[in-house]
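Quick one, tokens below:
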């Protein structure tokens, strides 16, 4: 007996992995400036390096989210 309820679409496992990796990169970036400064980098260089990684993580989250379901996203 079918009541017309469709099962949810399957998750794209590559997108789930990309989402998890992007989130882990963003979390690691929150604590990366002091160790980079301990390695001899100035605050500005360490900050720009971490900011670049954070922007990359944000792009990764957006792309992974748009491709989360196999329904022809990006």
């Amino acid at each position: 007996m079918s009541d017309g309820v469709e099962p949810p679409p399957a998750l794209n496992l590559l997108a789930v992995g990309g989402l998890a990796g992007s989130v882990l990169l963003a979390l690691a970036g929150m604590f990366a400036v002091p160790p980079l400064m301990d390695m001899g980098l100035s605050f500005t260089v360490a900050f720009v390096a971490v900011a670049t990684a954070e922007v990359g993580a944000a792009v990764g989250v957006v792309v992974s989210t748009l491709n989360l379901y196999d329904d022809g996203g990006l």
